[in-house]
User: Which sequence fits this backbone?
């Protein structure tokens, strides 16, 4: 019996062969070269020049599918442990956990409402595919493939409904976060799914070793695949997030980025430098940008105002079940469009004014600064932590009336 070939979901898309012109029709004129048109949904630095630069640097970058069908997944994963983890109830639940939380319900990839929303399920599959590719490139044995692949699949297994949007309130009120639930699922300590630990142990993978990798406490020689500044979670996640803010594809293919992080020649470092700059743009202009801030802040505010209605076990629900249990939140979520458009988001508040505003009117927003140290020698994947590093700060922002007409127009255009 022949072995079914493993499908590479990172492979370039085949270029369709053009149809032959009919003899009785004139030959078609060659298509004009495509020129990207900047139609950013956010006040950001993403523009046509940015896309042209990526195209020039990486002209042969293949497309990347952010949504994976069951048949594709079945063919792409050849390790029995990985197949069974993907089929588990806890992993299947991630299909109904949005990738960016409430943002997914208001802002659609590439600005098209008909597009499929991103989920933690697809993201975890993408991270696991990167893990497989890393193991292939480094010729790692089956035991390492099982361990690293399991960690990739399980790294987000504990996310609650609406991901990072509502997690701060679950953490504040019930001392719950996705890291804790991830560990409990892996150790078989929560009724949500008791099979994960059994599957790991059946395939000779220590659950504690998986937790150590995800908790950045592992001494495994390849643990930096998850813990360094350039890690497979970030490579997949930033590439996926980029689809929210630009209607044109930018060559930020996670497979090519991983290949660069392993190869580490001059061209590879150039690619990774561009990725690091892209990551800064994503955080500054989107994740911590005013519109996403307003969406998350208002949802958390709703939970605070209706605290008695929410319970700790809500954290175990899918988003469909969560909104069925809390119809008022569902109605509120779908009303956010108008509220953000009308009320807007205030500019950053100077720290000196914080006492005048009051804590109830302002909240801290994280701020990250990304740096590249070009002086250090990079000879291994682990060395990337010396070249790329972040500084984390915070600033104050509040939801309120917008004085800047340009910002008002940007807010309204989000939902066109």
Assistant:
């Amino acid at each position: 019996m022949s072995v079914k070939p493993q499908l590479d979901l990172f492979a370039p898309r085949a270029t369709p062969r053009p149809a032959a012109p009919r003899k009785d029709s004139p030959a078609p004129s060659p298509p004009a070269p495509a020129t990207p048109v900047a139609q950013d949904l956010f006040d950001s630095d993403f523009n046509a020049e940015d896309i042209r630069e990526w195209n020039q640097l990486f002209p042969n970058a293949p497309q990347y599918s952010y949504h994976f069908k069951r048949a594709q997944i079945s063919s792409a994963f050849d390790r029995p442990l990985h197949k069974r983890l993907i089929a588990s109830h806890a992993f299947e639940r991630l299909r109904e956990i949005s990738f960016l939380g409430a943002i997914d319900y208001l802002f659609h990839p590439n600005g098209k409402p008909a597009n499929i929303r991103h989920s933690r399920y697809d993201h975890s599959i993408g991270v696991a595919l990167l893990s497989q590719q890393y193991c292939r490139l480094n010729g790692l044995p089956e035991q390492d493939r099982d361990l690293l692949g399991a960690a990739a699949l399980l790294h987000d297994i504990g996310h609650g409904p609406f991901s990072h949007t509502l997690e701060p309130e679950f953490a504040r009120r019930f001392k719950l976060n996705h890291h804790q639930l991830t560990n409990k699922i892996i150790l078989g300590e929560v009724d949500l799914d008791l099979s994960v630990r059994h599957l790991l142990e059946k395939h000779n993978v220590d659950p504690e070793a998986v937790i150590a990798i995800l908790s950045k406490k592992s001494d495994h020689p390849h643990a930096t695949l998850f813990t360094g500044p350039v890690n497979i979670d970030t490579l997949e996640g930033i590439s996926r997030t980029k689809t929210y803010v630009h209607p044109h594809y930018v060559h930020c293919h996670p497979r090519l980025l991983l290949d660069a992080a392993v190869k580490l020649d001059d061209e590879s470092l150039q690619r990774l430098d561009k990725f690091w700059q892209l990551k800064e743009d994503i955080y500054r202009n989107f994740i911590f940008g005013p519109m996403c801030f307003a969406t998350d802040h208002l949802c958390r505010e709703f939970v605070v105002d209706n605290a008695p209605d929410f319970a700790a076990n809500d954290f175990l629900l899918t988003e469909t079940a969560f909104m069925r249990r809390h119809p008022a939140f569902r109605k509120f979520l779908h009303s956010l469009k108008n509220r953000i458009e009308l009320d807007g988001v205030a500019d950053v508040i100077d720290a000196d004014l914080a006492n005048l505003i009051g804590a109830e009117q302002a909240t801290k927003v994280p701020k990250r600064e990304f740096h590249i140290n070009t002086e250090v020698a990079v000879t291994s994947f682990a060395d990337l932590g010396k070249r790329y590093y972040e500084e984390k700060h915070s600033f104050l922002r509040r939801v309120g009336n917008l004085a800047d007409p340009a910002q008002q127009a940007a807010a309204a255009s989000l939902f066109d």
About this structure: Residues 266-287 form the longest helix (22 residues). Residues 189 and 290 are 39 Å apart (CA to CA).
